[in-house]
Amino acid sequence: MDYDEIGLRVGIEVHHSLDTERKLFCSCPTLLKTKDNPDLILERKQRFVAGETGEIDAAAFEETKKGKKIIYEAYKDCNCLVETDEEPPHALNVEALKVTLIIAELFHCRIVDEIQVMRKTIVDGSLPSGFQRTILIGVNGWVQTSQGEVEIEAIALEEDSGRLVASDKESLTFRLDRLGTPEVEVAVGKGIKSPEHAREVAKKIGDTVRSTGKAIVREGSVRQDVNVSIKGGDRVEIKHVPSLSLIPAVIEREITRQQTIIKAGKKVSRDVRKVLPDGSTEFLRPLAGAARMYPETDIIPMATGPLLGWVRKNLPETPEKRLQRYVKKGLSEEMARQMVDSEYLGLFDRVSAKFKVEPALIAGVFVSTLRDLERREGLNVSILAEKDFEELFYLLKGKRLVKEAIPEVLKLKIGNPEIKISDAVKKLGLGGLSDEELAAIIAKKIKENPSQPEGKIVGFVMKDVRGNADPARVIQLTKKMFNSPRQSP
Ligand SMILES: [Zn+2]
Fold it and tell me: Which among 31, 183, 296, 354 is most buried, taking Cβ atoms within 10 Å?
């Protein structure tokens, strides 16, 4: 297809959650609750209030019309009065601001002199306040691609919304754990030439955000909104495209859909549509009107100048430099490359700096074990958090876990998110043997097989202890026992 001839215009907005310790406007941690019952349940009815222009917004109207009851689930350990909109926002999280400034620098943006928190009206019920706070950080940037420069129109820092956990005819239930987590929004402007090119651009953006080492790795932490229009059609926004690989298909289908409408002599309406698993879309709501932003008067504007010196000194290393560093650490070229492309790169750097475990072993877990669990076993590895990996490598370093047992331990943990890694190790009977216990087993094998050589004994012992002892330790201990004077029977 000649995309130029059909007048294809594609824009993308990439949203990526940031892995900061605290939320954007309060000091609650950025953690997700999976099973525990909420400590507080709020019920609200959304009541539409006309905006300052006095006009009824089309998007607001659609949601209000449904008249659904909205239920919010809040938790003591990750929510406070800020999320429930009972208290004004606290000071802006400077860590999140610094990360976003770094991202804006990496995209060569012009950084705003002064940041002003704005309120964006959101009418789907996902925020108890009815608005989302957003801060414009940079404009007029660009990213280099295989088909030339593509414009990065704007970069904003936003608070994430609550997540929908249940919905029926009468009500919508949102969990407030995620609400307030910082997320960066990267809006792509002109320059996307084809559906496949759109995927490349989205990938480049994801790579750049991850290069800061401050991207959250979990399901739903990256969302792409794609907008498409063709000559004779109109701008249609497709929300929440869940993966990069789906982007070309979603755009192709939207082109076909608009072409069909145009051929039938009808008018393409400016809609917001949502993605179905096969890449087709369905109507969600009309596209919202403009002018839905108001200044957040609870937070005073802040100059960016004093932070820029720090930001420019702390830009992350380029992928090439990172690759060289990983190879120096002992990773094979292939593994280093996979690690550079991995969403776990920040985690890898932090974990391998903290624990004296062979870096290649840690990288192997991130690029190979997790991928196997995901692809071969269909497991949701994104529920594994940083503290889980820390616990895993802590146990490994203390020789209380052997590397062969890692896949089993992670599998059990994924199936039972409420347990700790150490519980999974215990449950699997992989507590690891103490030197005394291991020595007793070796002594028993020597006694049972008096004429066998050292190597054979190691074999017998390994068969008995399976995942419970590190082979190197068994060899070492057996050697020691062979060399020490034997006890007479
Ligand atoms: Zn809070």
Answer: 183
